[in-house]
Amino acid sequence: MSAAKGMLDGKSALVTGAGSGIGRATALAFAREGAWVAAADQTLEAAQGTVAAIEAQGGQAVAIACDVTDDAAVEAMVAAAVAAFGGLDCAFNNAGIAPHQVNATGVLAADLAEASWQRLLDVNLTGVWRCLRHEVAQMRKQGGGAIVNTASIAGLRGLPGAAGYVVGKHGVVGLTKAAAIDHAAENIRVNAVCPGYIETPMTEESMRRRGDKIIARTALGRFGQPGEIAEAVVWLCSDRASFVTGSNWTVDGGYSAI
Ligand SMILES: NC(=O)c1ccc[n+]([C@@H]2O[C@H](COP(=O)([O-])OP(=O)(O)OC[C@H]3O[C@@H](n4cnc5c(N)ncnc54)[C@H](O)[C@@H]3O)[C@@H](O)[C@H]2O)c1
């Protein structure tokens, strides 16, 4: 019997927000499937923690410090990934922040402080676009690649008291569609994942406040785990998804089916 082949054998993959939650789980899943992983986060220590976990499971990875609100840092991040692994086949643009990280929990749309609005859009939407543009610049040189952006169920529907987050994530869904069309002829596929409520540091606070309500309206009756998002991202980045582009994949335990 031949050795099991990984879905991403021989590919290089970049993950932003790789130091925690969904990003860390996806970096680990990429490595498990045979990819070399560039793990980027705003602090080097967080990215290094993920690299250590990948190395502990026998994978290869490098840690990169990158704040996605800094375009020069994003350009340098892509260059560092390419320098480490000789190219860039897959990219997961996942770094993001929640309303509570900009003092906007439960704030009504018209009452948002402009600084909160700006910060949510700068990280969650423009940050994804900055990454995408530098990744596309590399992928078009190589003849193609696959990009996945992290949107949210908040990119498909409204949620109360989360206007800046909802707007940014709807923007990610729109960017995913637009970029998929624009770069299809360059053999670059662009998709998004739309997670429901996933157990990560980002959601600790909302789980404490209204976890029971969230679970009650989730068809599967529980929160999701970061690794359950990672599985969708791995597949979208793999050649098995060769005819999938411009799509937004809901992974929410049935939250939006109700
Ligand atoms: N957890 C959920 O329920 C859920 C649901 C839907 C969407 N999402 C999205 O999934 C993504 C990951 O979230 P998570 O739940 O894993 O959260 P998390 O807080 O565990 O991880 C987010 C990571 O992004 C990094 N980050 C934040 N701002 C950054 C910046 N400016 N530059 C670079 N890195 C930055 C953080 O350092 C952190 O490591 C986010 O885009 C989030 O909006 C999460």
UniProtKB/TrEMBL annotation:
The keyword Coiled coil does not apply. InterPro entries: NAD(P)-bd_dom_sf, Sc_DH/Rdtase_CS, SDR_fam. It comes from the Bacteria. The keyword Oxidoreductase applies. Keywords: Oxidoreductase. Pfam families: adh_short_C2 (PF13561). PROSITE patterns: ADH_SHORT (PS00061). Transmembrane segments: none annotated. GO terms for molecular function: oxidoreductase activity. Gene3D superfamilies: NAD(P)-binding Rossmann-like Domain (3.40.50.720). SUPFAM superfamilies: NAD(P)-binding Rossmann-fold domains. Coiled coil: none annotated. Belongs to the short-chain dehydrogenases/reductases (SDR) family. This is NAD(P)-dependent dehydrogenase, short-chain alcohol dehydrogenase family.
